[in-house]
Amino acid sequence: MTEFDAATAAVQAALDAGARYADARVMHRRYESMTARNGDVEELTQDESIGLGVRALVGASWGFHAVPDLSDAAAREAGRRATRTAMASARVPGPPVDLVATEPVTASWASGCQLDPLGVPLSDKGDLLVAATRTMAEHGADLAEGLYQIWDTAKWFVSSEGHRIDQRIRECGAGISATSIGDGETQRRSWPSYRGQYGTTGWELVESLDLTAHAAQIAEESRALLTAPLCPAGETDLILGGEQLALQIHESVGHAIELDRILGWEAAFAGTSWLDLAQLGALRYGSELMNITIDPTIPGALGSFGFDDEGSPAVKRDAVRDGRWVGVLAGRDSAAMANLDYGGSVRADGWARLPMVRMTNVGLEPGPHTLDEIIAATDDGVLMDINRSWSIDDKRLNFQFGCEIGWEIKKGRRGRMLRNPTYTGIGPLFWRSMDMLSSETVPWGTPNCGKGQPGQIGHTGHPAAPARFRNVRVGVSA
Amino acid sequence: MSARSELELAGQVVELVRRLGGPAAQAEAVVTRADLALTRFANSAIHQNVSESTAEVRLRLHIDGRTAAGSGSVVTAEGLTSLVERTVAAARLCPPDPGWPGLTPPTPTPDAPPVDEATAHAEPDQRADRVRTFVAAAGGLSTAGYCRTAHRSSAFANSAGHTGYGRSAEAAMDGIARRDGADGVARRYAARLSDLDGAELGAQAAAKAQAAADPVELPPGHYEVVFEPAAVADLLQNLSWYGFNGKRYAERQSFAEPGAAQFDRAVTLVDDPLGTSGLPFDAEGTARGALTLVEAGTTRAVAHDRRTAAEAGAESTGHAVAGGTTWGPMARNLRLSGAPAGPPSATGRSTTGTAAGAVVDTDTAALVAGVRRGLLVTDLWYTRVLDPKSLVVTGLTRNGVWLIEDGTVVRAVRDLRFTESYPRALGPGAVLGLGARTVRQPDRVDGTWWAAPSLRLASWHFTGGASG
């Protein structure tokens, strides 16, 4: 019994029980993570999970069931249970459900990988984290932490329309953080990002981060931040580093353009969106520098794949072009509901979870400047980088973000370091104020995007570069 | 699987470790079977309806001074052997672990609360029927939310000879009703699905949504507040994760100072994992039980697992979680005790005009009646920590905020952003009243809940309106 056989049996059983459409995903995921603290390995975990999830559509109602057993009997029973659950859903029916067309292909896809991350000796990986955290501790950090994570996922997808797709996606990444503890507060600095930078790549990504080389500097900065002046409160010009801008895109654009949110499907939990489909193609989201793409085809970016989890091929699309909102993240059923002709952004966090609309790689196309040029062109402002806290309302409008570090910008030069830098605003007003954008793009990876009930953790990519925003409120504090 | 098979599997894993890792290997194994189901609705229709029957084996072992952990979903002989082989191999390649706290010795496992079999084996029709009654009770308003049931059966064994077995079952319902973009919410946790009344919750959510219509914007500033239990639940979660976490305490990242009067005398916090349905042991096999974290305003304890307890020279309090070496031990069933006599009864109307429906119980009404000018807050949303030590948190209100004037809810208010230190807001002299009745609020994951009465605080720092 192959994985394809199990998925096929589940789909057939769902159809036999009365479903008009069914699909099934078998997933086999291996996960490894290691954390280190103050020069010692703190925790090593290796998890392995394999199972099958089947989705059935009866009339206008969906059902889903998942099991960790790939036997023919278990797969068939899972298909029948998914159909029974769909029939129960019909007790509180919704509008008719349709699925936009996607070609029923037979295909294989694998992400690029030069150095198999699970094949790198544990001792080498441990040595890296131990050395980096020891260096941070030696340079003043009270708490020196390091982390890597690896996911190696194989999946097999079958649908009742004829899809038969297998994929193997290897993801990994790493990061270090130094925390200095004062009397009443803590200060943290991270490289290259808190809990790391990630991609659909091999261990070569981790090697390129050169964690140890940055350990001393971030430790010293975390210590210096304890006595740095507070970020002043008021309105000023704000320059964001690329890592923070990646999170800004994630929270105030990526989630806002999720079609399931726009349709109200997430209203009770993740929330809705301030966007109205009636304005698609016409709404001014940001300045003309703002060009956001939905692109799961970027080699090595964390949100890349060959096909999404309902069989739609990876395709690059515009979400915002020249500041105008033109596209959404969609699945086959939500797209049909919205009279759109494309899905392609549906993924499931493992075999036991329902596929749902998720970000892929949602990023900002490069601008014409460099960070140095942006600083030189700024008379009075604040530069902030590396996210420390993030909060945004349920319509994805009102946000407040905190960064690990800030710098005063005066007369085109970077000045004093500032502690506890925060900024707040309203999404579209903020994006309309962007007047300078760097070309120094990095495809930042976010491996911890929460959504859905039961909860799912998504892996998303966000190409971003430093940018400047005018007249932003900064320095919010308790 | 049955109790016997789960215990047998856990025992097999420990025996495999002994065989493949040598007689000196220390091992602990947890085998859990779970049946989780969640029926989700939006736009007043069920749009997602899921269930899963899963099995998981978690193993942690310590060999030659080195530690590794792993898990697997395959419970065949080959699957267990593979898990043990790779975890033994990983441990041997790891650097030494000088902080290994040893295994839990053989100790009695406390009796877990009885499991409601009807909840453990609930069918999708039963969840769908509760959704149907919620939707119907909302009087035509658009509704969204979920009804879920969870059943876990778990066995523990370690190479020190300690074993344990337990089951848990629970249910939860959480839904909103919507009117012109104004939402009202009703949320409950229960050990029995039969205790969840979809119609009652739907009517409550609808009443609050009706009362939340036509909100006005208020300027930011410090306001006196009455928090309903859903909002208080967020305070409890953040206090638990960041304050009463033994690892953060050891790292000096926590505000907690056992023995110090850090809170108002009205504040008593107890973690009570067996107060309703719950497993009787933690991830290390330590017995779970009630732990008083704050007593009449004085911090008494923080939660420990074996590792943080060893560092602190204390005993584990039974709060180990999988992955806890990194995240620390967690109190996940925290209760803010209600006032024994409750607040003085409301003497007049606590709501009026279009705001009628904002206040849903007599405890909250009595607290509102004492407020000269302040805000009634239903729920908090997207709270994130700016600084863990001072526990300064930013977030927003959600699902209904109202202005209180002279003891009466007078009108709905648009959502506000706040930036506030949670321990400071609950500090000495800051609590102006507590309801008598605690209400259990479900967390995002089963096994975790927060119980609280309504709470009146002297000041809460709102730092912006929803529009900026």
Shape of chain B: globular
Number of helices of chain B: 11
Tally of DSSP helical segments of chain A: 10
Spatially, the strands of the biggest sheet of chain B line up as 3-2-1-4-5-6
How are helices and strands ordered from N to C of chain B?
A: HEEEHHHEEEHEHHEEEHHEHEEEEHEEEE
Overall number of domains of chain B = 3
Shape of chain A: globular
Helicity level of chain B: 10-25%
Count of folded domains of chain A:
2
Number of strands of chain A: 23
Beta-strand percentage range of chain B: 35-45%
> Could you tell me the radius of gyration of chain A in angstroms?
23 Å
Class computed from helices, strands and strand pairing of chain A: alpha+beta
How would you characterize the overall build of this protein?
- Chain A: InterPro entries: Metalloprtase-TldD/E_C, Metalloprtase-TldD/E_N, Peptidase_U62_metallo, TldD/PmbA_N, TldD/PmbA_sf.
- Chain A: This is TldD/PmbA family protein.
- Chain A: Residues 234-451 form the Metalloprotease TldD/E C-terminal domain.
- The complex is a heterodimer of chains A (478) and B (468).
- Chain A has helices spanning 3-16, 72-89, 122-138, 204-209, 211-225, 242-254, 259-262, 332-337, 371-376, 427-432, and strands spanning 21-37, 40-58, 61-67, 106-110, 143-159, 164-181, 186-191, 197-199, 234-240, 292-294, 317-321, 324-325, 346-347, 356-357, 362-364, 380-392, 398-410, 413-418, 422-426, 434-437, 442-451, 456-464, 467-474.
- Chain A is α+β, with helices and mostly antiparallel strands.
- Chain A folds into two domains: 3-225, PmbA/TldD fold (2-Layer Sandwich), CATH 3.30.2290; 234-474, no CATH class.
- In chain A, strands 1, 2, 3, 4, 5, 6, 7 and 8 form an eight-stranded mixed beta sheet that branches. Chain A has a five-stranded mixed beta barrel with strand order 9-16-17-19-23.
- In chain A, a hairpin with a 2-residue loop joins β17 and β18.
- In chain A, α1 packs parallel to α2 and α3 (122-138) packs parallel to α5.
- With 468 residues, chain B is α+β, with helices and mostly antiparallel strands.
- Chain B folds into three domains: 3-208, PmbA/TldD superfamily (PmbA/TldD fold, 2-Layer Sandwich), CATH 3.30.2290; 209-235 and 338-465, no CATH class; 237-245 and 256-336, no CATH class.
- In chain B, 24% of the residues lie in helices and 37% in strands.
- Chain B has eleven helices and 19 strands.
- In chain B, α1 packs across α2 (77-93) and α4 (124-137) packs parallel to α5 (198-211).
- The mean pLDDT of chain B is 95.
- β2 (40-58) of chain A pairs parallel with β3 (66-72) of chain B.
